[in-house]
């Protein structure tokens, strides 16, 4: 009797255990599915934001390049001669200025027969003497500024030509065209660090649905509907419909199943320039990259015998992942969207203002002092607004150091020249110069931010900014001391935090950018009071340290 009862109890216990195990597997399966769908949904939304932001940033770059080409075509040097030494020198200077912001391969001029007569950079390929009558959109280029994708040399790279016609300012006759050559990869790589997109996942089409940029270089110049491209993309009808929808001018996202790379998320958006869709951006990422970590964790949990611990662990993982994703989303939405919006919405009108001021100065032949004063005020305001844009972009983008030997005093003077130091502030720089290795462009960002902070701290009072330096065999020390009020103890511990600012204006990213740049140089930056002093220490010979 007792034995029978024990058998029944053991049977019930076994049934309960089996039920719990089955329920556990069901819950585990259900959890996996929900987590996977949730992650895919979140990733799709984030990827769409990144796609739009990247497209907006590239749009801004091309808009600015178009303005640059217009400025060159209207310049006095180009108007006077297409081939003179003065024109060549002017083009070279413009090329260097443009490259300081957006890397372009070359600038060249054609005459009215579209034969290239002047070229800035002939190290990679010589173009003088080449006729462009047969290139795509050549007739349109004669009439108005524009863009065209071309395989322009023997290296097989598909480049974009940004152009503006040269119209004689007196007779109104067509004299030729100014072209800038752009490699899409150069512009895209500039923003990869900002939006955390793998460059291999990006594909760009031009307005004729030809591939401008792709991981597989054999695709460059191929039309999407071509046999080769269709074979590569898998001749997937759903995918083709998704791509065609974007080619029609829509922004779209889709999750493909049974893709050639497995399940993927694809997001795309057109890029409109001067009210016409000139480019189409696509970002495609495999789903397994998103869920592989959680799948590994769940596989481990399947092997555990303690079902309660298993369920708690799964719930904990879900909560942690949700929280991490939420934090990442907030960071991306705040910083990424801020950067792209500023770049897109401010830089375009700034370029127009800058161009207009240049024209006003050229036409001010009577040397009207009042006009000169006003144009100088406008240029200072434009520089200030551009500094705000750069403070955001300098924080979010990380690029490798471009090391070279530099003069400390030259870098300081260059930074001073880019700012407006009020007359009420006395500025002292080191008497003895120091030669050291650094990325000059990044160090100018640091010096400009520290000088600007000091100026804003002193404000309208009489004050002084002193820059001091010293060195030993291993490192150099640079200090920026100002007579402004002390920083409160509460703020001094937060001063290098991103988005922290005690001022009514500013992004709160300037000092964070400074710290990032100094850290990248394997150095340190500290701030102390009595008086307020920012002290930088970096290795003197950085190449030896690396």
UniProtKB/TrEMBL annotation:
Gene3D superfamilies: 1.10.287.130, Histidine kinase-like ATPase, C-terminal domain. Its main location: membrane. It comes from the Archaea. It is a multi-pass membrane protein. SUPFAM superfamilies: ATPase domain of HSP90 chaperone/DNA topoisomerase II/histidine kinase, Homodimeric domain of signal transducing histidine kinase, Sensory domain-like. Signal peptide: none annotated. InterPro entries: HATPase_C_sf (IPR036890), HATPase_dom (IPR003594), His_kinase_dom (IPR005467), HisK_dim/P_dom (IPR003661), HisK_dim/P_sf (IPR036097), Sensor-like_sf (IPR029151), Sig_transdc_His_kin-like_C (IPR004358). It holds the Pfam family HisKA. The chain crosses the membrane at residues 7-27. GO terms for cellular component: cytoplasm; plasma membrane. GO terms for molecular function: ATP binding; phosphorelay sensor kinase activity. It is found in: Cell membrane. Keywords: ATP-binding, Cell membrane, Kinase, Membrane, Nucleotide-binding, Phosphoprotein, Transferase, Transmembrane, Transmembrane helix, Two-component regulatory system. GO terms for biological process: signal transduction. Residues 341-542 form the Histidine kinase domain. This is Histidine kinase. It comes from Nitrosopumilus maritimus (strain SCM1).
């Amino acid at each position: 009797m007792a034995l029978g009862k024990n058998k029944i109890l053991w049977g019930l216990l076994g049934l309960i255990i089996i039920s719990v195990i089955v329920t556990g597997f069901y819950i585990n399966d259900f959890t996996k599915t929900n987590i996977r769908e949730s992650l895919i949904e979140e990733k799709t939304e984030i990827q769409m934001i990144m796609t739009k932001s990247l497209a907006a940033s590239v749009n801004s770059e091309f808009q600015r390049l178009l303005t640059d080409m217009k400025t060159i075509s209207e310049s006095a040097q180009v108007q006077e001669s297409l081939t003179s030494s003065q024109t060549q020198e002017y083009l070279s200077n413009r090329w260097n200025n443009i490259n300081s912001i957006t890397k372009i391969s070359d600038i060249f001029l054609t005459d009215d027969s579209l034969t290239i007569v002047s070229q800035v950079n002939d190290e990679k390929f010589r173009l003088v003497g080449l006729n462009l009558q047969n290139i795509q959109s050549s007739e349109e280029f004669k009439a108005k500024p524009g863009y065209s994708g071309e395989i322009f040399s023997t290296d097989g790279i598909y480049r974009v030509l940004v152009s503006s016609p040269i119209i004689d300012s007196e007779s109104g006759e067509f004299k030729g065209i100014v072209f800038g050559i752009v490699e899409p990869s150069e512009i895209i790589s500039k923003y990869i660090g900002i939006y955390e997109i793998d460059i291999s996942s990006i594909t760009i089409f031009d307005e004729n649905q030809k591939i401008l940029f792709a991981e597989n270089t054999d695709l460059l110049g191929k039309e999407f509907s071509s046999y080769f491209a269709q074979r590569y993309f898998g001749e997937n009808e759903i995918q083709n419909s998704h791509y065609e929808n974007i080619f029609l001018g829509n922004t779209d996202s889709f999750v493909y199943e049974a893709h050639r790379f497995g399940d993927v998320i694809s997001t795309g958006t057109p890029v409109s320039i001067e009210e016409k869709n000139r480019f189409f951006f696509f970002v495609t990422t495999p789903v397994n990259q998103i869920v592989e970590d959680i799948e590994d964790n769940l596989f481990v949990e399947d092997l555990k015998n303690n079902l309660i611990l298993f369920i708690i662990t799964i719930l904990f993982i879900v909560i942690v992942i949700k929280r991490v994703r939420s934090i990442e989303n907030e960071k991306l939405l705040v910083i990424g969207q801020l950067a792209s919006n500023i770049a897109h919405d401010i830089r375009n009108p700034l370029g127009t203002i800058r161009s207009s001021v240049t024209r006003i100065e050229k036409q001010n032949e009577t040397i009207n002092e009042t006009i000169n004063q006003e144009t100088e005020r406008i240029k200072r305001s434009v520089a200030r607004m551009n500094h705000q844009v750069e403070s955001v972009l300098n924080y979010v983008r990380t690029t490798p150091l471009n090391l070279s030997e530099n003069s400390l005093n030259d870098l300081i003077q260059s930074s001073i020249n880019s700012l407006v130091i009020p007359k009420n502030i006395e500025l002292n720089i080191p008497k003895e110069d120091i030669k050291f290795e650094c990325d000059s462009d990044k160090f100018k960002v640091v010096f400009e931010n520290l000088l600007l902070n000091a100026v804003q701290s002193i404000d309208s009072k009489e004050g002084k900014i002193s820059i001091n330096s010293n060195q030993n065999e291993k490192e150099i020390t640079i200090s920026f001391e100002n007579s402004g009020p002390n920083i409160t103890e509460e703020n001094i511990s937060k001063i290098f935090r991103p988005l922290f600012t005690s001022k009514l204006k500013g992004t709160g990213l300037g000092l964070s950018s400074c710290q990032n740049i100094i850290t990248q140089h394997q150095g340190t930056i500290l701030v102390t009071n009595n008086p307020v002093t920012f002290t930088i220490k970096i290795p003197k010979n950085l190449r030896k340290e690396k």
